[in-house]
Amino acid sequence: MFDTLVRRNRWEDPNGNTLVPWLAESWTRKSDFVWEFKLREGVKFHDGHEMDADDVAFSLSAERLWGEKPIARRGTRYARGITRVEATGAYKFEIETSFPDPNMPYRLVTPIGFVLPKHYYEEVGTDAFGQMPMGTGPYKTVSFDPSVGFKAVAFDEWWGGSVPAKSLSFEIVPEFSTRFAGLVAGKFDVVVNAPSDQIQTLKQTSGVKVMEKGIENYPMFAFNMLDTELIPNNPLTDVNLRKAMVHAIDRTSITKAIWGDATYVPTPFNFPEYGKYFDPKRERAVKFDTDKARELLTASTYAGEELVWHITRGFYPNYEIAAEFMVEQWAEVGINVKIELKDNFSLAYKRPFHLLNMSMSSEFSGDPYRPLWMDWGPLSSRVRAKHKTWDMTPEFENLGEAFELAQDFESRKQAYLNLVAEWENVTPGMYLWRNVVSYITAEDLAWDPGNSPVTIFDNKYMK
């Protein structure tokens, strides 16, 4: 439905470490604070209007993303430091920042890189646009109901060439058995998220194809490190307890038991999609070690209090199974954790809780800004939301600002490693594994989703 200004080349580079021009065909850093981008000409929105720089300036404006009360409130995290977006010609625009930012093109592969039609957005308003969105992508919206599904048809005037499917229909079907029956009957071409214990059987089923893809998303939990009226004298304000809880968990064995060889336990913020920043030899600072867990537990102020873990029912594949294993392993070292399943995130976010389920993505290409700084820094929900879980340490904030301001690769890499070390020193949470999505398709469907967290059906992924 939408195109971004810049795109990650996942179809030739599985980790997406290469940027390619997309709606923006070129870019230049004019000064430390200003980037200039040139747009493709002749790109059309789904109603036939031609896209121009005014549409980009609107899409990236203070009104939408980075002002005091932006329409897209989550945009502030992606747009940090932007002070001006201006059309300087029909097909040129500039972005100015409050600090030197060598990585602006990487930001524009994210959702703030979507270009929206200014004329249509202003005509129908935010709510109506959300119900019938319009972009420049290969498919245009026919209908959208978040409780039911989404339908789109091919946009024959797409600038990117042929559109491989005549139409797309996404349907919410909660039970996998029903989804799979629909696939076998020919009602569906793709279904997702098969139970792990059924994968091998499905691979032996004639007429279907099974793909397990590790996507750039990492399920985890955050420790609630705050003293509040609902949890006074919160034992998790003690770093010894937090580290003891991480040391007590054998994540590798749990992940292997649940997922087999489909995924792995990552070292915090050390992901293959980070390109040159990725170091496959770097190890976790807080490893599985029950003796160390007991030692730290003894040094802590923890006195056996029940710690409540809010988990959103059925949202993250295999999360609840893993949680049961972890509760048992914590009990073995003397830590009492109770799981409370919640039917949606609104309920999960409602206090009191000591641990909170979540996941974080790393969709910036070749740069560890997300989730390390964007999702734990000053504009993150960890710090600002009603369900916030920590206040940054002064050291983390200072190191994060140094990372954000670093200009060359070597200084930026060192700043990144310093920031990771402080995160592990504080231990505000624990990552479990790289998320896995299983896709079961009709055998003759020529489509490979790659490792993107978003399923894409354009001519780079589907023939």
Question: Which key phrases capture this entry?
Answer:
single chain, 463 residues, alpha+beta, Dipeptide-binding Protein, domain 1, Dipeptide-binding Protein, domain 3, 2 domains, 5-stranded mixed β-sheet, 4-stranded antiparallel β-sheet, 16 helices, 17 strands, 29% helix
Provide the helix percentage. 25-40%
Low-confidence stretches: none
* Shape annotation: globular
How many structural domains? 2
What is the CATH C-level name of the largest domain?
A: Alpha Beta
Mean pLDDT: 95
Please summarize the sheet with the most strands. 5 strands, mixed
CATH architecture of the largest domain: Roll
Number of discrete helical segments: 16
Major beta sheet, strand line-up: 14-13-15-12-16
What percent strand? 15-25%
Structural class: alpha+beta
**CATH level 3 topology of the largest domain:** Dipeptide-binding Protein, domain 3
**DSSP, total strands:** 17
Distance between the termini: 18 Å
CA-based gyration radius: 23 Å
Provide the CATH superfamily of the largest domain: Dipeptide-binding Protein, Domain 3
